[in-house]
Protein backbone atom coordinates (compact mmCIF):
# COMPACT_ATOMS: atom_id res chain seq x y z
CA UNK A 1 0.00 0.00 0.00
CA UNK A 2 1.30 3.45 -0.94
CA UNK A 3 1.90 6.18 1.60
CA UNK A 4 -1.12 8.04 0.21
CA UNK A 5 -3.33 4.98 0.75
CA UNK A 6 -2.05 4.51 4.27
CA UNK A 7 -2.83 8.16 5.06
CA UNK A 8 -6.36 7.84 3.70
CA UNK A 9 -6.93 4.69 5.72
CA UNK A 10 -5.77 6.42 8.87
CA UNK A 11 -7.99 9.41 8.19
CA UNK A 12 -10.97 7.12 7.63
CA UNK A 13 -10.23 5.25 10.86
CA UNK A 14 -9.98 8.53 12.76
CA UNK A 15 -13.31 9.71 11.34
CA UNK A 16 -14.98 6.46 12.30
CA UNK A 17 -13.47 6.69 15.78
CA UNK A 18 -14.71 10.25 16.26
CA UNK A 19 -18.20 9.23 15.11
CA UNK A 20 -18.21 6.35 17.53
CA UNK A 21 -17.06 8.67 20.31
CA UNK A 22 -19.78 11.21 19.65
CA UNK A 23 -22.43 8.49 19.44
CA UNK A 24 -21.12 6.83 22.56
CA UNK A 25 -21.13 10.03 24.60
CA UNK A 26 -24.93 10.22 24.42
CA UNK A 27 -25.31 6.86 26.14
CA UNK A 28 -22.50 7.10 28.70
CA UNK A 29 -23.35 6.92 32.40
CA UNK A 30 -24.13 10.38 33.77
CA UNK A 31 -25.05 11.94 37.11
CA UNK A 32 -27.85 13.91 35.48
CA UNK A 33 -28.78 16.17 32.56
CA UNK A 34 -26.44 18.83 31.23
CA UNK A 35 -27.42 22.49 31.27
CA UNK A 36 -28.28 22.26 27.57
CA UNK A 37 -30.65 19.39 28.24
CA UNK A 38 -32.43 21.30 31.03
CA UNK A 39 -32.78 24.40 28.86
CA UNK A 40 -34.17 22.38 25.97
CA UNK A 41 -36.80 20.77 28.21
CA UNK A 42 -37.86 24.19 29.46
CA UNK A 43 -39.33 24.92 26.04
CA UNK A 44 -43.14 24.52 25.84
CA UNK A 45 -44.40 21.04 24.99
CA UNK A 46 -40.97 19.49 25.54
CA UNK A 47 -41.80 17.44 28.61
CA UNK A 48 -44.58 16.22 30.92
CA UNK A 49 -43.88 19.10 33.34
CA UNK A 50 -43.56 22.62 31.98
CA UNK A 51 -41.20 24.99 33.77
CA UNK A 52 -39.18 28.16 33.31
CA UNK A 53 -35.43 28.54 33.80
CA UNK A 54 -34.70 31.91 35.41
CA UNK A 55 -31.30 33.43 36.03
CA UNK A 56 -30.91 34.30 39.70
CA UNK A 57 -31.16 38.07 40.20
CA UNK A 58 -32.16 40.58 42.87
CA UNK A 59 -35.88 40.32 42.07
CA UNK A 60 -35.94 36.54 42.25
CA UNK A 61 -33.97 36.55 45.52
CA UNK A 62 -36.51 38.92 47.08
CA UNK A 63 -39.43 36.82 45.83
CA UNK A 64 -37.91 33.58 47.12
CA UNK A 65 -37.11 35.06 50.53
CA UNK A 66 -40.61 36.49 50.78
CA UNK A 67 -42.09 33.05 50.12
CA UNK A 68 -40.56 31.66 53.34
CA UNK A 69 -41.30 34.64 55.57
CA UNK A 70 -43.35 33.92 58.75
CA UNK A 71 -47.03 33.58 57.95
CA UNK A 72 -46.57 32.42 54.34
CA UNK A 73 -46.76 28.70 55.06
CA UNK A 74 -49.69 26.86 53.47
CA UNK A 75 -50.28 24.75 56.60
CA UNK A 76 -52.34 26.48 59.33
CA UNK A 77 -50.31 28.24 62.01
CA UNK A 78 -51.10 27.86 65.69
CA UNK A 79 -52.58 31.35 65.84
CA UNK A 80 -55.40 30.19 63.57
CA UNK A 81 -56.93 28.11 66.39
CA UNK A 82 -59.65 29.57 68.60
CA UNK A 83 -58.14 30.98 71.77
CA UNK A 84 -60.59 30.93 74.72
CA UNK A 85 -58.62 30.48 77.97
CA UNK A 86 -60.47 28.22 80.37
CA UNK A 87 -57.69 27.19 82.74
CA UNK A 88 -58.49 26.63 86.41
CA UNK A 89 -62.01 25.24 85.96
CA UNK A 90 -63.14 21.97 87.54
CA UNK A 91 -64.23 19.09 85.35
CA UNK A 92 -64.78 15.32 85.21
CA UNK A 93 -61.94 13.26 86.63
CA UNK A 94 -60.66 15.98 88.97
CA UNK A 95 -60.13 15.13 92.63
CA UNK A 96 -61.36 17.75 95.13
CA UNK A 97 -60.53 18.26 98.80
CA UNK A 98 -63.47 19.88 100.62
CA UNK A 99 -63.19 21.06 104.23
CA UNK A 100 -66.27 22.36 106.09
CA UNK A 101 -65.97 24.62 109.16
CA UNK A 102 -68.95 25.20 111.50
CA UNK A 103 -69.62 27.59 114.35
CA UNK A 104 -72.34 27.15 116.95
CA UNK A 105 -74.83 24.36 116.30
CA UNK A 106 -72.76 22.01 114.17
CA UNK A 107 -73.82 19.13 112.01
CA UNK A 108 -70.65 17.07 112.08
CA UNK A 109 -68.86 17.84 115.34
CA UNK A 110 -71.75 16.93 117.73
CA UNK A 111 -73.22 18.83 120.77
CA UNK A 112 -70.92 20.34 123.33
CA UNK A 113 -71.91 21.37 126.87
CA UNK A 114 -71.11 24.86 127.98
CA UNK A 115 -71.14 26.43 131.41
CA UNK A 116 -74.47 28.07 130.78
CA UNK A 117 -75.84 24.98 129.12
CA UNK A 118 -76.09 27.07 125.99
CA UNK A 119 -76.18 24.87 122.91
CA UNK A 120 -74.34 27.57 121.01
CA UNK A 121 -70.60 26.93 120.83
CA UNK A 122 -68.59 29.93 119.68
CA UNK A 123 -65.58 27.82 118.73
CA UNK A 124 -65.16 26.61 115.18
CA UNK A 125 -65.13 22.94 114.30
CA UNK A 126 -63.78 21.54 111.08
CA UNK A 127 -64.86 18.54 109.06
CA UNK A 128 -62.51 17.18 106.40
CA UNK A 129 -64.24 15.03 103.81
CA UNK A 130 -62.29 12.30 102.00
CA UNK A 131 -61.04 13.23 98.54
CA UNK A 132 -63.94 13.39 96.10
CA UNK A 133 -63.67 12.61 92.39
CA UNK A 134 -65.86 14.56 90.00
CA UNK A 135 -68.04 12.15 88.03
CA UNK A 136 -68.63 12.18 84.26
CA UNK A 137 -71.61 14.54 84.67
CA UNK A 138 -69.63 17.06 86.72
CA UNK A 139 -71.06 16.22 90.19
CA UNK A 140 -69.71 15.19 93.60
CA UNK A 141 -71.70 13.73 96.51
CA UNK A 142 -71.43 15.01 100.08
CA UNK A 143 -73.06 13.57 103.25
CA UNK A 144 -76.33 15.34 104.13
CA UNK A 145 -76.00 17.52 101.03
CA UNK A 146 -76.42 15.04 98.22
CA UNK A 147 -75.12 15.64 94.73
CA UNK A 148 -73.60 19.03 94.09
CA UNK A 149 -72.75 20.23 90.61
CA UNK A 150 -69.13 21.41 90.38
CA UNK A 151 -68.27 20.93 86.70
CA UNK A 152 -67.21 24.11 84.90
CA UNK A 153 -66.90 26.01 88.18
CA UNK A 154 -64.01 27.56 90.07
CA UNK A 155 -63.04 26.46 93.59
CA UNK A 156 -64.63 29.64 95.01
CA UNK A 157 -67.91 28.89 93.26
CA UNK A 158 -67.90 25.31 94.55
CA UNK A 159 -67.27 26.58 98.09
CA UNK A 160 -70.30 28.87 97.82
CA UNK A 161 -72.45 25.97 96.55
CA UNK A 162 -71.37 23.75 99.46
CA UNK A 163 -72.11 26.49 102.03
CA UNK A 164 -75.54 27.00 100.50
CA UNK A 165 -76.33 23.29 100.75
CA UNK A 166 -75.44 23.17 104.47
CA UNK A 167 -76.92 26.54 105.46
CA UNK A 168 -80.21 24.99 106.59
CA UNK A 169 -78.48 22.33 108.73
CA UNK A 170 -75.57 24.15 110.28
CA UNK A 171 -74.82 27.60 111.70
CA UNK A 172 -72.32 29.69 109.72
CA UNK A 173 -70.90 26.90 107.55
CA UNK A 174 -67.69 27.90 105.78
CA UNK A 175 -66.17 25.72 103.05
CA UNK A 176 -62.63 25.58 101.71
CA UNK A 177 -62.20 23.78 98.36
CA UNK A 178 -58.92 22.87 96.72
CA UNK A 179 -58.12 20.83 93.62
CA UNK A 180 -56.00 17.95 94.82
CA UNK A 181 -55.50 16.45 91.37
CA UNK A 182 -56.58 18.03 88.10
CA UNK A 183 -57.32 15.94 85.05
CA UNK A 184 -59.84 18.16 83.31
CA UNK A 185 -57.95 21.47 83.54
CA UNK A 186 -54.71 20.14 82.16
CA UNK A 187 -52.83 19.62 78.92
CA UNK A 188 -50.69 16.74 77.70
CA UNK A 189 -47.18 17.36 76.41
CA UNK A 190 -45.59 14.46 74.50
CA UNK A 191 -42.67 13.78 72.19
CA UNK A 192 -39.13 15.11 72.33
CA UNK A 193 -39.29 16.90 75.68
CA UNK A 194 -37.36 15.94 78.79
CA UNK A 195 -40.42 15.33 80.99
CA UNK A 196 -43.46 14.40 78.89
CA UNK A 197 -46.76 14.09 80.70
CA UNK A 198 -49.79 15.97 82.01
CA UNK A 199 -49.45 19.58 83.18
CA UNK A 200 -52.14 21.30 85.24
CA UNK A 201 -53.39 24.70 84.13
CA UNK A 202 -54.11 27.52 86.56
CA UNK A 203 -55.66 30.96 86.42
CA UNK A 204 -52.18 32.17 85.44
CA UNK A 205 -53.18 31.52 81.79
CA UNK A 206 -50.21 29.38 80.84
CA UNK A 207 -49.01 29.72 77.25
CA UNK A 208 -47.62 27.10 74.91
CA UNK A 209 -43.97 28.10 75.28
CA UNK A 210 -44.37 28.16 79.10
CA UNK A 211 -45.73 24.62 79.16
CA UNK A 212 -43.00 23.27 76.86
CA UNK A 213 -40.47 24.82 79.25
CA UNK A 214 -42.31 23.29 82.24
CA UNK A 215 -41.96 19.90 80.55
CA UNK A 216 -38.19 20.36 80.60
CA UNK A 217 -37.85 21.79 77.11
CA UNK A 218 -36.11 19.90 74.33
CA UNK A 219 -32.49 18.96 73.78
CA UNK A 220 -32.87 19.59 70.04
CA UNK A 221 -32.32 22.94 68.28
CA UNK A 222 -35.66 24.76 68.38
CA UNK A 223 -35.55 25.39 64.62
CA UNK A 224 -35.44 21.62 64.04
CA UNK A 225 -38.45 20.92 66.26
CA UNK A 226 -42.04 20.84 65.05
CA UNK A 227 -44.92 21.54 67.46
CA UNK A 228 -48.07 19.63 66.54
CA UNK A 229 -51.05 21.11 68.34
CA UNK A 230 -54.55 19.64 68.73
CA UNK A 231 -57.51 21.55 70.17
CA UNK A 232 -60.87 19.88 69.77
CA UNK A 233 -61.26 19.24 66.04
CA UNK A 234 -58.61 21.82 65.14
CA UNK A 235 -55.10 20.84 64.10
CA UNK A 236 -52.06 23.01 63.40
CA UNK A 237 -48.31 22.69 63.40
CA UNK A 238 -45.41 25.09 63.47
CA UNK A 239 -41.69 25.05 64.16
CA UNK A 240 -40.86 25.90 67.75
CA UNK A 241 -38.27 28.43 66.61
CA UNK A 242 -41.00 30.38 64.78
CA UNK A 243 -43.15 30.80 67.91
CA UNK A 244 -42.24 34.09 69.58
CA UNK A 245 -43.14 34.16 73.31
CA UNK A 246 -46.29 36.17 73.86
CA UNK A 247 -47.21 36.23 70.16
CA UNK A 248 -50.52 35.14 68.66
CA UNK A 249 -48.96 31.72 67.92
CA UNK A 250 -47.92 31.31 71.57
CA UNK A 251 -51.42 30.18 72.48
CA UNK A 252 -53.03 30.57 75.89
CA UNK A 253 -53.79 26.94 76.64
CA UNK A 254 -57.22 25.40 77.21
CA UNK A 255 -58.10 22.23 79.11
CA UNK A 256 -57.67 19.19 76.89
CA UNK A 257 -55.11 20.71 74.53
CA UNK A 258 -52.57 18.19 73.29
CA UNK A 259 -49.03 19.21 72.36
CA UNK A 260 -46.56 16.96 70.57
CA UNK A 261 -42.97 18.06 70.10
CA UNK A 262 -41.46 16.22 67.12
CA UNK A 263 -37.93 16.14 65.78
CA UNK A 264 -38.10 17.44 62.20
CA UNK A 265 -34.67 18.66 61.03
CA UNK A 266 -34.65 20.95 57.99
CA UNK A 267 -32.62 19.54 55.11
CA UNK A 268 -31.79 20.15 51.48
CA UNK A 269 -30.76 17.59 48.88
CA UNK A 270 -27.98 17.73 46.30
CA UNK A 271 -27.77 15.91 42.98
CA UNK A 272 -25.43 16.01 40.03
CA UNK A 273 -21.71 16.59 39.61
CA UNK A 274 -20.66 16.38 43.29
CA UNK A 275 -20.92 12.62 42.71
CA UNK A 276 -22.65 11.41 45.86
CA UNK A 277 -26.33 12.27 46.14
CA UNK A 278 -26.73 13.61 49.67
CA UNK A 279 -29.23 15.02 52.10
CA UNK A 280 -27.70 17.80 54.19
CA UNK A 281 -29.05 19.23 57.45
CA UNK A 282 -29.24 23.00 57.94
CA UNK A 283 -27.68 22.88 61.45
CA UNK A 284 -28.38 26.61 61.89
CA UNK A 285 -31.36 28.93 62.19
CA UNK A 286 -30.67 30.41 58.74
CA UNK A 287 -28.76 28.85 55.88
CA UNK A 288 -27.93 30.80 52.72
CA UNK A 289 -27.59 29.30 49.25
CA UNK A 290 -23.89 30.17 49.28
CA UNK A 291 -23.42 28.21 52.52
CA UNK A 292 -25.42 25.27 51.13
CA UNK A 293 -23.26 25.07 48.00
CA UNK A 294 -20.13 25.27 50.16
CA UNK A 295 -21.41 22.45 52.42
CA UNK A 296 -21.24 20.03 49.48
CA UNK A 297 -17.88 21.22 48.21
CA UNK A 298 -19.16 23.42 45.39
CA UNK A 299 -18.88 22.58 41.67
CA UNK A 300 -16.00 20.23 40.92
CA UNK A 301 -13.26 21.62 38.65
CA UNK A 302 -12.96 18.25 36.92
CA UNK A 303 -16.60 17.38 36.29
CA UNK A 304 -19.06 20.23 36.96
CA UNK A 305 -20.27 23.13 34.89
CA UNK A 306 -19.87 26.19 37.17
CA UNK A 307 -22.34 28.14 35.05
CA UNK A 308 -25.10 25.56 35.56
CA UNK A 309 -26.12 25.22 39.21
CA UNK A 310 -29.89 24.99 39.55
CA UNK A 311 -32.17 25.56 42.55
CA UNK A 312 -35.48 23.67 42.62
CA UNK A 313 -38.14 24.79 45.13
CA UNK A 314 -41.54 23.11 45.06
CA UNK A 315 -43.64 26.09 46.13
CA UNK A 316 -41.48 28.80 44.60
CA UNK A 317 -43.27 31.81 43.07
CA UNK A 318 -44.69 30.87 39.68
CA UNK A 319 -43.37 32.55 36.55
CA UNK A 320 -44.52 33.06 32.98
CA UNK A 321 -47.81 31.34 32.07
CA UNK A 322 -48.14 30.02 35.62
CA UNK A 323 -45.25 27.59 35.18
CA UNK A 324 -42.90 26.93 38.12
CA UNK A 325 -39.48 28.54 38.04
CA UNK A 326 -36.11 26.80 38.24
CA UNK A 327 -33.34 29.19 39.21
CA UNK A 328 -29.96 29.06 37.47
CA UNK A 329 -26.79 30.18 39.21
CA UNK A 330 -23.51 30.89 37.41
CA UNK A 331 -20.52 30.84 39.72
CA UNK A 332 -18.46 32.59 37.02
CA UNK A 333 -20.56 35.71 37.53
CA UNK A 334 -19.09 37.69 40.44
CA UNK A 335 -22.46 39.27 41.37
CA UNK A 336 -23.82 35.77 41.95
CA UNK A 337 -21.75 35.43 45.12
CA UNK A 338 -23.59 38.36 46.68
CA UNK A 339 -26.99 37.03 45.58
CA UNK A 340 -26.38 33.55 46.95
CA UNK A 341 -25.50 35.02 50.35
CA UNK A 342 -28.82 36.89 50.43
CA UNK A 343 -30.95 33.92 49.38
CA UNK A 344 -32.19 31.83 52.33
CA UNK A 345 -32.60 28.11 51.86
CA UNK A 346 -35.91 26.45 52.65
CA UNK A 347 -36.62 22.99 53.99
CA UNK A 348 -36.71 20.42 51.15
CA UNK A 349 -34.90 22.66 48.62
CA UNK A 350 -32.98 20.79 45.92
CA UNK A 351 -29.67 21.86 44.37
CA UNK A 352 -28.57 20.33 41.08
CA UNK A 353 -25.02 20.85 39.79
CA UNK A 354 -24.87 19.98 36.08
CA UNK A 355 -21.98 18.10 34.54
CA UNK A 356 -19.77 19.88 32.03
CA UNK A 357 -20.40 18.87 28.40
CA UNK A 358 -16.69 18.14 27.91
CA UNK A 359 -16.94 15.63 30.73
CA UNK A 360 -18.82 13.21 28.47
CA UNK A 361 -15.98 13.07 25.93
CA UNK A 362 -13.47 12.65 28.75
CA UNK A 363 -15.44 9.69 30.08
CA UNK A 364 -15.46 8.10 26.63
CA UNK A 365 -11.69 8.50 26.18
CA UNK A 366 -11.17 7.08 29.65
CA UNK A 367 -13.25 4.02 28.74
CA UNK A 368 -11.23 3.55 25.51
CA UNK A 369 -8.00 3.74 27.47
CA UNK A 370 -9.27 1.11 29.88
CA UNK A 371 -10.26 -1.16 26.99
CA UNK A 372 -7.13 -0.89 24.85
CA UNK A 373 -4.35 -0.31 27.37
CA UNK A 374 -4.16 -4.07 28.26
CA UNK A 375 -3.74 -4.90 24.53
CA UNK A 376 -1.02 -2.31 24.07
CA UNK A 377 0.75 -3.53 27.18
CA UNK A 378 0.60 -7.15 25.99
CA UNK A 379 2.12 -6.21 22.61
CA UNK A 380 4.91 -4.28 24.31
CA UNK A 381 5.69 -7.27 26.53
CA UNK A 382 5.61 -9.64 23.53
CA UNK A 383 8.26 -7.57 21.74
UniProtKB/TrEMBL annotation:
Residues 187-231 form the Soluble ligand binding domain. It is a multi-pass membrane protein. Residues 89-179 form the Polysaccharide export protein N-terminal domain. It is found in: Cell outer membrane. It comes from the Bacteria. Keywords: Cell outer membrane, Ion transport, Lipoprotein, Membrane, Palmitate, Polysaccharide transport, Porin, Signal, Sugar transport, Transmembrane, Transmembrane beta strand, Transport. InterPro entries: Poly_export (IPR049712), Poly_export_N (IPR003715), SLBB_dom (IPR054765), Soluble_ligand-bd (IPR019554). Residues 275-353 form the SLBB domain. Coiled coil: none annotated. Pfam families: Poly_export, SLBB, SLBB_2. PANTHER family: POLYSACCHARIDE EXPORT PROTEIN GFCE-RELATED. Belongs to the BexD/CtrA/VexA family. This is Polysaccharide biosynthesis/export family protein. It comes from Novosphingobium kalidii.
Amino acid sequence: MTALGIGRARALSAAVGISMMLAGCASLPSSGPTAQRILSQAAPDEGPVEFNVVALDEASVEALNASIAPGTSKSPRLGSLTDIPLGGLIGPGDTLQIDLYEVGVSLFSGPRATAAADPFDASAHGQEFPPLTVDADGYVRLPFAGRIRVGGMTTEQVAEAVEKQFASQSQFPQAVVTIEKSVFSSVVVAGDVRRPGRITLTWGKERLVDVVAAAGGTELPIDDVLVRFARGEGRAEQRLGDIAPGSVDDLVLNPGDRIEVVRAPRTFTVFGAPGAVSEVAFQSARLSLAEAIARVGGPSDAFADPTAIFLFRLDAPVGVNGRPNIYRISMLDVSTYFLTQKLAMKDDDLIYIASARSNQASKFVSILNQLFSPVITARAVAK
